Structure formats: structure tokens, C-alpha cells
Amino acid sequence: MALVNVMENIVEEKLHRMLEAEDCCKCERCFEDMKAKALNQLPARYVSTHNGELFSKLAATVRQSTIDINVAVANAIDVISAHPSHEGQSAADEDDNG
Ligand SMILES: [Zn+2]
After folding, report:
1. 59: CA distance to ligand 1 center in Å?
2. In whole angstroms, what is the distance from residue 38 CA to residue 77 CA?
3. Who surrounds ion ligand 1 at CB < 5 A?
């Protein structure tokens, strides 16, 4: 059994989708910053997962709070892309590990 914050999966998925339409830095660092910012604005939704139940729990959580999630993710993209935590606008292509 594992505990998962399904909100984290949802935010990550939404970020990927919404960033496709955005013309901003999408490097790993900005992505993580956006994800953290959005998650801090949203309630954590921990579920225990057995045998791939995760998907139905994800879907239920999405249905409950789609608007909040969209707003939080859009806001996070706005703020982080305007003030990336690294220098410059272009994605720094540092390859740390992996
Ligand atoms: Zn960046």
C-alpha cells in the first residue's frame, strides 16, 4: 500500500497540458516551481492506493475541484514565468542527472 497525494498527479498533468499553449520557459526548474506553487494553493488529497485504484480516485478529485485546480495552475504559470528562479528567459540546459 502506498499513500499518494493525487493532487500532485493532477497538477502535474494540467501543467503539462497548459504549458503546451504557453510561450514561456518550461525547463525542469520552472516546471517544479510552478508545480510547487500550484500545490501550495490547493488542498492535499491523500489516498491509499491498492491495485491501480488510483485512476478512479484521480477522476473523482478532478470532478470535485476542476475550477480551483485550473485557477491555481494558471496562476502558478503566470507568476513563475514572469519571475523564473534562474537567470535569463531561455531554458538552461543543465543536465545534472538523468
Ligand atoms: Zn526555466
Report:
1. 30
2. 9
3. 25, 27, 30, 84
Rounded to the nearest angstrom, the distance between the alpha carbon of 28 and the centre of ligand 1 is 7
- Buried-state track 55-71, b at ≥16 Cβ within 10 A, e below 16: eebbeebbeebeeebee
Grid cell, residue 79, equals 507568476
Confirm if 35 and 79 have CB atoms less than 8 A apart: no
CA of 87 to the centre of ligand 1 (A): 8
> How high is the mean pLDDT in each 10-residue block of the chain (98 residues)?
85 95 94 97 85 70 79 96 80 47
What is the C-alpha separation between 66 and 82, in angstroms, rounded? 24
The Cα–Cα gap between 78 and 55 comes to 29
State the pLDDT at residue 92. Answer: 47
